[in-house]
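Exercise 7b. Backbone tokens:
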């Protein structure tokens, strides 16, 4: 095997097995975490001992030098030359990885569960041993650094800008019978979502699937919402922007009502707000996640808000209390019925909700970092919901 050019030397043979990626950083968030920057086309990356090595083509090489956390960056063209020297006229990813493995004297690679299956079979056929990692490649992603906590806080600052735009649009409407009218036209979920997206883009992120769901639509927690929004109905707005600069997410939910709430609606919203406060009070390093979830259930049970399955679907509180947040919108840990101890530094959402068709839905969501004492708030926006 031809050695790489002297301008990009590699070090001595490394402990085996090494870790191998072949993916882009949109599909593989473990790779995004590993290399520290975004690449939209699949590329080779290796952890060899303590060294992180990236293989980038000419299009990405210069940017990788400036932005990535790789210890060493190898031009893809160099690996192609090494493969061609072995008689391969048009090297593909398997040939390039084989060339790299030969230079590094690596015979075995660990790969993530989502490693491309066709490429895996080609590597095995070439005599390279492959072990597929069962579970998380980087379980340490669950505990966030100070940098990551700031990035998530920034994502929620962006979400707050979206809420401000949505709330102002609701306040600016006129109530005309069963309609909310804005600038002479009925106010719709789509119009509010566009205002949210515009505000979030200006704040440095993009909430592609923001939820603006009113009335019975809000009783399906992942319904994005469509069509006209009505006065005197609860409207759930869930904004989760991904920041352009860091790739980290924000995630917040508030519930609004334009007009006059009924007593039953006020009881519903208060129960959700009190459940969130009770859950937040419970969040602490070492506490079981299901104990946090149980606090929400306790409040709802005491207030008489039952959870049950009906012929039309579930009603009440039928989802988990929260989830981890970071480079992925939903990551470890989940806070629900599963018994799992919260770790110091973990960033999670706390988002209880109640959903009853005919009455409406309410969800309130904030993001906190787990500490040895009370949780550190990473989101902030007003809880004022009844907009008269």
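Sequence design result:
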């Amino acid at each position: 095997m031809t050695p790489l050019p002297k301008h990009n030397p590699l070090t001595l043979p490394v402990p085996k097995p090494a870790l191998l990626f072949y993916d882009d950083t949109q599909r593989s968030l473990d790779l995004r975490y590993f290399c520290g920057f975004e690449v939209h086309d699949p590329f080779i990356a290796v952890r060899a001992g303590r060294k992180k090595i990236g293989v980038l083509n000419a299009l990405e090489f210069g940017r990788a030098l400036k932005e990535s956390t790789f210890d060493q960056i190898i031009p893809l063209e160099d690996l192609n030359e090494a493969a061609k020297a072995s008689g391969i006229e048009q090297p593909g990813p398997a040939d390039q990885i084989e060339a790299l493995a030969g230079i590094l004297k690596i015979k075995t690679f660990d790969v993530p569960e989502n490693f491309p299956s066709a490429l895996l079979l080609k590597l095995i056929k070439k005599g390279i041993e492959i072990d597929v990692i069962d579970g998380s490649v980087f379980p340490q992603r669950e505990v966030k650094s100070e940098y990551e906590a700031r990035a998530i806080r920034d994502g929620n600052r962006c979400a707050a800008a979206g809420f401000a735009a949505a709330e102002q649009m609701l306040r600016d409407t006129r109530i005309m019978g069963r309609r909310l009218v804005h600038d002479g036209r009925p106010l719709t979920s789509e119009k509010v979502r566009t205002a949210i997206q515009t505000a979030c883009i200006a704040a440095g992120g993009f909430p592609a699937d923001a939820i603006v769901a009113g009335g019975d639509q809000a009783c399906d927690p992942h319904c994005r919402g469509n069509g006209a929004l009505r006065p005197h109905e609860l409207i759930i707005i869930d904004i989760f922007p991904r920041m352009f600069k860091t790739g980290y997410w924000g995630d917040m939910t508030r519930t609004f009502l334009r007009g006059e709430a009924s007593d039953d609606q006020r009881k519903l919203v208060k129960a959700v707000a009190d459940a969130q406060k009770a859950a937040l009070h419970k969040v602490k390093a070492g506490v079981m996640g299901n104990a946090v979830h149980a606090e929400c259930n306790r409040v709802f049970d005491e207030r008489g808000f039952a959870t049950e399955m009906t012929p039309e679907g579930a009603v009440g509180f039928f989802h988990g209390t929260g989830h981890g947040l970071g480079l992925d919108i939903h990551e470890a840990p989940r806070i629900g019925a599963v018994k799992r101890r919260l770790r110091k530094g973990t960033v999670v959402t706390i988002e209880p909700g109640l959903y009853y068709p005919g009455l409406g839905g309410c969800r309130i969501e904030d993001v906190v970092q787990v500490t040895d004492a009370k949780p550190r708030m990473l989101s902030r926006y007003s809880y004022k919901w009844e907009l008269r």
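Instructor comment: The chain has nine helices and 24 strands. The two ends are 75 Å apart (CA to CA).
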